[in-house]
Amino acid sequence: MTVDHVWRQIEQLLGSATDHVVLVAPFIKKEVFQATLDTVPAGVQKITCITRWSVAEVAAGVSDPEIAELAQRDGRATVLLCHNLHAKLYVADDHCLVGSANLTGKATGRVSAANVELLVEADVAHPEVQRVLAIFEGTTVPGTVELAAQIREQANLMQDDEDSPRVLVPGQEEQPTHWLPETRNPERLYRVYNGRHHQIGSDVLAGVLRDLAHLDIGPGLDEQAFGTAVLARLRAMPELHALTAAGRMNLGDAQADLVATGEFTGEQAQRAVETIAAWLHYFDDVHLVPVGPWEIRQGKELS
């Protein structure tokens, strides 16, 4: 068996296509994507590529958003994004391959240091294949050339920031999962997420990008959907358990809890709690009540 056995499987499948091709892979490198497009016969006029673009993953080098440019140049291909994608699936008309291999050099065996991967032949009519393909209908966002450029720009900024969170790849130590908001002005989050950050100073911008990396929200959302996603992430924070459970949270208690972890000074804990309060005020229906140590309470304040 050759080192490029997986690539030969993909090449044979796609070369047999006569009507349409679907490529489903979280990680796609541009060199392999171009080779894949070249493999599809000229008579096939519809190529759908479903992948995911994360700023942190692009910064880590595991995926190239520039495939959008290659798709546009080819003229037959459309790139769609599904942020929670993990499946790997390659379809040519009524036949497909399912398994573990992304469209990268190591996964397909197109480089010498190849991964151990598996692709198995299946029929597109298989219920599980149909279930996965159905999920993509109405849940993906377009992977445009403009969005690709935005993702790449932010990935480059993240690479320049030594404090930015890193994607876990084999050989790296596990990163801490604990996160508290850093950005003092939460209204900046969507601006940066949407690529409008050129009036923001470099230090502040780095903090916003770190928060966005921890939030891990898929690209291409409108502002309302983005706010909903941020709020869901906030409500999952253990520091906000009292607020979500009882509808109120004492800021003094929250500050004391952070100090008790040994990870924060009193000043750092106060700043962290104030930042959390600012995020909640911006993204949620809460208000501050000055009773003893201030409280955050669910619901809009009645006048």
UniProtKB/TrEMBL annotation:
Pfam families: PLDc_2
Tree of life domain: Bacteria
Protein name (database record): PLD phosphodiesterase domain-containing protein
GO biological process: phosphorus metabolic process
The PLD phosphodiesterase domain, residue ranges: 85-107
GO molecular function, one term: catalytic activity
Matches recorded under Gene3D superfamilies: Endonuclease Chain A
